[in-house]
Amino acid sequence: MGLVVAEGLILPATCPISVRSLLALSALRLPLNAVLMGSGPGSEGGPASGLCGWRLLTGRALLVAARVEVVALATTLACNVYLRLGCRRDKRLKPQGSERKCVKAD
Length: 106
Hints:
Shape: elongated
Helix content: 55-70%
Structural class: mainly alpha
Radius of gyration: 19 Å
Largest sheet: none
Mean pLDDT: 76
């Protein structure tokens, strides 16, 4: 549960990136997180190792890693929607030539 909160909620909310960038990052993080979770003490994978010493992935490790990435994607999407709606509201309420500018996350 701690990994879901830290990697899925806190990190995406404090360091917002675009959804496209997060999808690319998630494609890299999902298998790495699953390997790390599957190789820890008490894991179901046991001492069996796969290619180049990587532990064999278990279904539970893949499920937990996928859950982390889904929560991270939902958090990032919610933050991007919130920022976009806030910028639209500011543009409607403030007159032209305002000093505050909205920037697009890339």
